[in-house]
Amino acid sequence: MTMPAPPLFRRLAALLYESVVLFGVLWVAALVYGLAVGQRSGIADRHGLQATVFFALAFYFIGFWTVAGQTVAMRAWRLRVVDARGQRLPLWRAGLRFLLGWLWVLPPLALAWGLGLEHAAALLMLGAWIVLWAAASQLRADRQFWHDTWAGTRLIDAAA
Question: Which pLDDT tens digit goes with each residue over 58-67?
Fold first, then answer.
């Protein structure tokens, strides 16, 4: 069964739309956390806030991928994530895809932190990395993102 990857433009547009949706999701998670612990500043108890944000992201992505195979943005852009056989993702595979998805942002952020770069330089490095990471999918015959390949998942056209 061939499941060609949707065009790169659609996948990146869904990623951009996802960031807008996640702004609201994470705002609510941060608000609930802040109210629960009486947090008055984002700097105070930031590790607890970071852990809350991480788990909110995990719950959002893994939940949508295992139940519907699509997040809100993926539905809008007619994308679906499936396993290599075209089936719905089991919980462990969705979790692996979530963890490997951090390859979109962690390497440049870790490097920027290690080099002591200012925020603007770190954001520039992050942007360049995202462009390179997305373009690297074009090196593959199936055009899938590398984290999908390593997780045993595929991004497909939901309309097909």
Answer: 999 999 999 9
